[in-house]
Specification:
- The protein has two domains: about 1-40; about 45-125, Immunoglobulin-like.
- Helices cover about 25% and strands about 45% of the residues.
- It is built from one helix and eight strands; from the N terminus they run H-E-E-E-E-E-E-E-E.
- The longest helix is centred in the N-terminal third of the chain and has 33 residues, at about 10-40.
């Protein structure tokens, strides 16, 4: 029985192990990036609804003072996304002057809450 020795065996193993390491590192980076995106989504909520087109809606946290402001679109809709969880006062302003408020609006993880300023009775409901 003859034994055959290969000269290239060690270099092939090194190439495969380097490729395996590079693949594992790339997967680890992608996994970490993906988990941070999920984490960011899991700590925020949204306020959305209807209001007169062109007006401004502001959500101000009664918990930590965070404040975000958006303009109502031409179809009378607005959305304030990625709000930290907490309790908010949502204010409608026309020409820079507040004209209506919703107090104690709860923003919860991963959910949206509807706050309308469309002339109907002030309505809030979860989405």
């Amino acid at each position: 029985m003859k034994t055959i020795h290969s000269i290239h065996t060690g270099s092939v193993r090194r190439v495969l192990s380097a490729r395996s390491f590079a693949l594992a590192a790339a997967l680890a980076v992608c996994g970490l990036a993906g988990s941070s995106a999920v984490y960011a989504q899991a700590t925020a909520g949204e306020v959305f609804g209807k209001a007169p087109a062109g007006d401004t809606v502001t959500a101000k946290s009664t918990t930590n003072g965070t404040q975000r402001e958006v303009q109502v679109d031409a179809k009378g809709r607005y959305s304030i996304r990625a709000l930290p969880i907490g309790v908010y006062t949502v204010t409608l302003s026309e020409n820079g002057q507040p004209v209506a408020k919703h107090l104690n609006v709860p923003v919860v993880v991963g959910r949206g809450i509807q706050v309308n300023f469309d002339g109907e009775a002030a309505a809030t409901g979860q989405h």
